[in-house]
Amino acid sequence: MVAFTAHTVVAADVSPEWVRGVLDGSEGSEGSEGSEGSEGSDGSDGSGATDLGAPMKPAFLSALAAYTGRRIGALDQMMLAGPLPGRPSPELTGLPELTEITDSGHPRVRRAHRYRDDVRVYAADGGLVLVGRGLAGRWEMAFEVEPDRQGRGLGRSLALAARHLLPPGAGAVWAQVSPGNAASVRTLLAAGYRPVGAEVLLVAR
């Protein structure tokens, strides 16, 4: 599920009729036929089409998860930034030289390999940054700062470095962050990322 301004993408093996049926209340989670939607308490006709946020609400997500046999993941804000030329040198990012690592038991790295392909991980003193291909083949990034190094600008430097680590031809890099993680949201904004939408991934059980 990917939500943008005034529209939402339902990237799942379901028909448009099923989606409309669930949103207006005429379809259950199993896709069975039901009665027409009743009038909503807000004065609407009960149709999900009048509520642009309906596809990201628990009722629709739960129905979609039940219908597809998947598990609902976290709600994340999506942020986007363009690539930057050159490798992430200290002059460009304020970081010491990054070292690529191919074997890491770090939880962030293990998670990246579950959700992304072509993952590349780079370590710096006090943190790491990674890039890889995620949803629909887009390039995504993630970063982690060790607790005793937080609050010193390292996160911003790592997020900025990710923009230099994209392969030739990559048009942008995406970041996902919990809306409640205000510190990381501010870090990404400072590194040139801009909010563009929200997503909820439904993953295999």
Automatic annotation (TrEMBL):
<keyword id="KW-0808">Transferase</keyword>
<dbReference type="InterPro" id="IPR016181">
    <property type="entry name" value="Acyl_CoA_acyltransferase"/>
</dbReference>
<protein>
    <submittedName>
        <fullName>Acetyltransferase (GNAT) family protein</fullName>
    </submittedName>
</protein>
<dbReference type="InterPro" id="IPR000182">
    <property type="entry name" value="GNAT_dom"/>
</dbReference>
<feature type="domain" description="N-acetyltransferase">
    <location>
        <begin position="84"/>
        <end position="205"/>
    </location>
</feature>
<dbReference type="GO" id="GO:0016747">
    <property type="term" value="F:acyltransferase activity, transferring groups other than amino-acyl groups"/>
</dbReference>
<feature type="region of interest" description="Disordered">
    <location>
        <begin position="21"/>
        <end position="53"/>
    </location>
</feature>
